[in-house]
Every structure is written in structure tokens, then in C-alpha cells.
Design brief:
Blueprint (H helix, E strand, L loop, with lengths): L2 H9 L7 H5 L3 H23 L4 H8 L3 H9 L6 H10 L4 H10 L1
Helix pairs in contact: 3-6, 3-7, 4-5
């Protein structure tokens, strides 16, 4: 958020902070959330790069299209293990996953 917008919101009585502050997350919890979101984004990008539909990726993983949609949306019920499995099933390499984690 730019400084002018922040100043305007604060002048109107709004308190501006981070999602971590708002949700009361510890530093570790915040890092886990960012890792999960980075992996979810990597799954979608890799799937699209290979021109797979969610249904096709689901078939590769022996899962459902709706579960792939949850994975890509960063649903909190999706485990880190499932995110990594989905990325690999979509064709990501260990290097691709490392890149996604580094950007998260």
C-alpha cells in the first residue's frame, strides 16, 4: 500500500496492519501460510504450463477436480504434503518447487 493511501485511511480512523497482525499469527504460522500459498500458485502455474485441466490433473493424482480447485485456491485444509504431491504430479521439478518456496 502506498504511503498516501495509508495516511488517508489512518486519518479516517482505520488501523492499518498486516494479515499476520490481524489474524494473530506467530512468525512461524505466517511463514507456513506464505509457503502454502506459494506452492498453491506453483501447482496452478505448472498445470497451466502443461495445458492440463483440473480434471486431468485430478486423474493423474487419483483425486477429484474439486480437490484440485481447493489446492490451487490455497484452501487451509490442504496439507503441505498434498501441495508438493500436486506440484510434482503437474510436472514440477524439485528445482521448480524450490523456486516457488524462495519466492513465497
Amino acid at each position: 500500500m502506498n504511503a498516501a493511501k495509508r495516511k488517508k485511511l489512518e486519518a479516517a480512523g482505520w488501523r492499518v496492519g498486516s494479515a499476520q497482525e490481524f489474524l494473530g499469527l506467530s512468525e512461524e504460522e505466517s511463514v507456513i501460510v506464505s509457503i502454502k500459498l506459494a506452492l498453491a500458485d506453483a501447482v496452478k502455474k505448472q498445470r497451466e504450463k502443461r495445458r492440463l485441466t483440473q480434471t486431468e490433473l485430478a486423474a493423474i493424482m487419483c483425486s477429484s477436480q474439486s480437490r484440485i480447485a481447493e489446492i490451487e485456491a490455497g484452501d487451509p485444509t490442504v496439507s503441505l504434503d498434498l501441495l508438493v504431491r500436486a506440484a510434482l504430479a503437474a510436472g514440477a521439478t524439485k528445482k521448480d518447487i524450490a523456486k516457488a518456496l524462495a519466492s513465497g
